[in-house]
Amino acid sequence: MIINVLQARKAIGNEQTFEFITSAGQLAIEGETPWKSSVIIVEGKLINNGRVIAVNGIISATAKYQCSCCLEDFTANMEIPFSDNYQQTNDEPIESEADLTYYTGDEIDIADLMRESLILAEPLKSVCSENCRGLCPHCGINLNTAQCSCQDKLVDPRLAVLQKLLK
Ligand SMILES: [Zn+2]
Ligand SMILES: [Zn+2]
User: Fold this and answer.
1) Beta bridge partners of 75
2) Which of 52, 149, 155, 166 is most buried, by the most CB atoms less than 10 A from its CB?
3) Same domain assignment for residues 6 and 47
4) Range of the domain at 140
């Protein structure tokens, strides 16, 4: 994911847009990532800010998750913003700049930035919907799509004692 910034470097304020189509495989982040089978589209813009080349844009991908509540698979379209500043190693170093990546020559490689942005966007817990009803703790049926009668059969133990006494 290399961008030639020769043109942008010529004058302060020079802008350039870029677009890449990639995949988790190409980025070597396959593993258990939710982007495994998705096309990953990267669209962005860079601008020569004088001291650095500022890069920003959006990654679009379809994530595939298993709901941690009902265990069904579901997909979610993700739009992940990214940004970073690139400084050429030959230039005077900037002190205490928070987001700064170095590059040599006229080419910047945004692959690391893409990996980092995708990994940070992975939720720790994924639920198919805010209203997911999960699985019945007794029979394991998916309560989003079916109903069971477990709840009716469960009798409060105190009531059970009373029922016995009444007999
Ligand atoms: Zn669910
Ligand atoms: Zn049940």
Assistant:
1) 64
2) 52
3) yes
4) 133-167
Of the pLDDT bands very low, low, confident and very high (cuts 50, 70, 90), residue 167 is: low
Neighbours of ion ligand 2 (CB under 5 A): 136, 138-139, 148, 150
Kindly give the distance from the C-alpha atom of residue 135 to the centroid of ligand 2, in angstroms, as a whole number: 8
The total of structural domains in the chain comes to 2
Specify the length of the chain in residues. 167
Cα 89 to Cα 102, 106, 134, 142, 162: the distances in Å are 6, 11, 53, 57, 82
Q: Tell me the pLDDT tens digit for each residue of 91-147.
A: 676 665 567 899 999 999 999 999 999 989 988 788 999 999 999 999 999 999 999
Q: Counting ligands in written order, which one lies closest to the CA of residue 145?
A: 1
Please check whether residues 101 and 113 belong to one and the same domain: yes
Spacing, Cα 67 to ligand 1 middle (Å): 5
Cα of 129 to ligand 1 centre, how many Å?
6
